[in-house]
């Protein structure tokens, strides 16, 4: 089942989600949260990778209220401009509602074990942090989330394991913002933050402009270990 349809919780319609299934049954579910490029080839490949690890992966189309089915790349200036326009038009509160609806659906999926978490990248990394403070997800993983330093006031609401991967040279997360994140989350036993030296934003997007195999392998290993521990 490569795609499913999930009804929006506000009754405004429904949205599609890409699904990748593991070989084994009774698996935990990972809600994969898109970058600003939509549920494109990269997000589908990441979802397939999560399924290869033994989890059900489900990646909802969060831009559906603007334009359904967006699939951009980071290859051209025009696509970058379109991606930023989409991000600026995106209603994050509605996005969280859609992620909560996806999470609820994930917990009832055939072949699932009732446990579900999130894993987000870029914009999705920010939303994964927001899910850690606003939802009952069992685990949340954030890759190079943008603007998290402005969300730290809600950090006291984090109760489930949260893993943050931060690029040292992230063009969208300056050093000052990174230090605020590290200080704001220090001492929280449920939160782990890792900074990857010398790499830029999107270092874990295979084939992307900033791909770094070493940092991605280390980060992905940490993600896999946490997901296996929490989701089974």
TrEMBL record:
One of its GO terms (molecular function) is hydrolase activity. Keywords: Hydrolase. Residues 15-230 form the Dienelactone hydrolase domain. InterPro entries: AB_hydrolase_fold (IPR029058), Dienelactn_hydro (IPR002925), Dienelactone_hydrolase-like (IPR051049). Pfam families: DLH (PF01738). SUPFAM superfamilies: alpha/beta-Hydrolases. It comes from the Bacteria. Gene3D superfamilies: alpha/beta hydrolase. This is Dienelactone hydrolase family protein. It comes from Teichococcus wenyumeiae. The lineage of its organism: Bacteria, Pseudomonadati, Pseudomonadota, Alphaproteobacteria, Acetobacterales.
């Amino acid at each position: 089942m490569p795609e499913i349809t999930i009804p929006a919780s506000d009754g405004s319609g429904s949205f599609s989600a890409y699904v990748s299934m593991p070989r084994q049954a009774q698996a935990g579910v990972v809600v994969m949260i898109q970058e600003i490029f939509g549920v494109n080839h990269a997000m589908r490949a990441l979802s397939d990778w999560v399924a290869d690890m033994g989890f059900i992966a489900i990646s909802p189309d969060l831009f559906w209220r603007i334009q359904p089915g967006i699939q951009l790349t980071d290859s051209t200036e025009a696509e970058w401009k379109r991606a930023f326009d989409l991000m600026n038009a995106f209603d994050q509160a509605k996005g969280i509602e859609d992620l909560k609806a996806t999470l609820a659906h994930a917990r009832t999926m055939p072949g699932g074990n009732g446990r579900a978490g999130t894993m987000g990248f870029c914009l999705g990394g920010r939303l994964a942090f927001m899910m850690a403070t606003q939802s009952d997800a069992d685990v949340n993983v954030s890759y190079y989330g943008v603007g998290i330093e402005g969300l730290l006031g809600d950090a006291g609401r984090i109760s489930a394991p949260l893993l943050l991967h931060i690029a040292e040279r992230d063009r969208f997360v300056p050093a000052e913002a990174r230090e605020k994140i590290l200080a704001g989350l220090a001492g929280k036993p449920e939160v782990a933050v890792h900074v990857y030296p010398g790499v830029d934003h999107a270092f874990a997007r295979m084939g992307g402009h900033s791909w770094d195999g070493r940092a991605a392998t280390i980060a992905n290993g940490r993600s896999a270990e946490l997901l296996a521990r929490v989701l089974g």
